[in-house]
Amino acid sequence: MIFYDAVTLAYDGTPVLEGFTLHIAPGAHIALMGPSGCGKSSALNLAAGLLAPSSGAVRVEAKRLAYVFQEPRLLPWLTAAENVNAVLSDRPETMPKALEWLAAAGLEGAAEKRPAELSGGMRQRVNLARALAYDGDALLLDEPLEGLDKPLQEEMLSLLRRCTEGKTLLLATHDPAQAQALDCRILKYQDKAFVSEE
């Protein structure tokens, strides 16, 4: 489903990932863990095609790939509901489904607000609702619960658990509890690659 083959990624000549190989099977849940700046987000961006490796190859066989970015990246001129609906069809007939996803993220009262009117945590939940609404067969989650307090994290983890069953999931996180809650196999950063704890 997602294949990293001997991948090296360097910034200004300094490798962040070097000889990184990982094959993620369909339906597998994998968490990448390590300190800030170690290449977790870069590994996800490689899978999304937003970065190209310095050497090696990255291949993704998903039909539909959804991405929850660490920063919400919402369209500022659209309301919360319109941001979610944009990945459905951007037509009025799919707006009820967009509203259902916002309600699932606890944001039924924020549907008509634009991103500038929302708190950081609310924007992140719109970001999450939008990615889940897209219904990808593979999901990239980059610190998806950043900025949420503990009760909201628990609610969103429950939503993610329900919505990612049977889907391929690649999570970048610093929180082992989140990885465990999503039934992820944890890979820790070591020697410029991510390796299994087991």
SS element count, helices: 6
Helix content: 25-40%
What is the global morphology?
globular
Number of strands: 9
CA gyration radius, whole angstroms = 17 Å
How does this model look, in words?
The protein is an alpha/beta fold. 30% of the residues lie in helices and 29% in strands. The chain has a six-stranded mixed beta sheet, sandwiched between helices. It has a three-stranded antiparallel beta sheet with strand order 2-1-4. Helix 3 packs across helix 4. The longest helix has 15 residues. It is globular.
How would you summarize the topology of this molecule?
Blueprint: E1 2-11, E2 14-24, E3 29-33, H1 40-47, E4 55-60, E5 65-68, H2 80-85, H3 95-104, H4 120-134, E6 138-142, H5 150-164, E7 168-173, H6 176-181, E8 185-190, E9 193-196
Parallel strand pairs: 3-7, 3-8, 5-6, 6-7
Antiparallel strand pairs: 1-2, 1-4, 8-9
Helix pairs in contact: 3-4
Any descriptors?
198 residues; alpha/beta; 6-stranded mixed sheet; 3-stranded antiparallel sheet; 29% strand; globular
Question: What's a concise summary of this model?
Answer:
The chain is α/β, with parallel strands linked by helices and 198 residues long. Helix content is 30%, strand content 29%.
